[in-house]
Amino acid sequence: QVQLVESGGGTVQAGDSLRLSCLGPGAPTVNAMGWFRQAPGKEREVVALITYSGEGTHYADSVQGRFTISRDNAKNMVFLQMNSLKPEDTAVYYCAAKTSLVGTYLSTNKYSLWGQGTQVTVSS
Questions:
Q1: Concatenated DSSP letters of 9-63
Q2: Count of alpha carbons within 13 angstroms of residue 67, beta-carbon side
Q3: Rama region for 73: left / alpha / beta (φ>0; ψ in -120 to 50; rest)
């Protein structure tokens, strides 16, 4: 079942930008949130993670310096600004939420609420 509602995916050319948005149920269900992606034939990987307060963030090496994760708790939303997109960024992007207070925002096995996924395609 769809737990989060995502938007913003699409098809762009290399070097372009996209901004993904995700609407969730908010507190107390959700604390940390993150973005994951899965390319064809590849395992799902972490893209970016953010604490509830927004003070702590983590980025995959492959997107560091190009992507920015942010959140607006008043609106129960999390965003992923993607700049300088590359063909290798092509994947289905998923918004996910950590619902347990056990561990930290880096404990990816604790992310249990997921969006339906939104396709991002970057052409060369």
A1: -EEEETT--EEEEEE---TTT--SEEEEEE-TTS--EEEEEE-SSS--EEE-TTT
A2: 28
A3: alpha
End-to-end CA distance of the chain: 34
Q: What is d(CA 64, CA 122) in angstroms, rounded to the nearest whole number?
A: 17
Partners of residue 12 on adjacent β-strands? 122
Cα distances (Å, whole numbers) of residue 20 to 51, 79, 81, 94, 123: 18, 6, 6, 10, 18
Neighbours of 53 (CB within 10 A): 11
61 is written with which tokens?
A: 């090496």
pLDDT at site 2: 53
CA atoms within 13 A on the CB side of 112: 8
3-state secondary structure 97-120: EECCCCCCCCCHHHEEEEECCEEE
Query: pLDDT tens for residues 23-38?
Result: 998 888 889 999 999 9
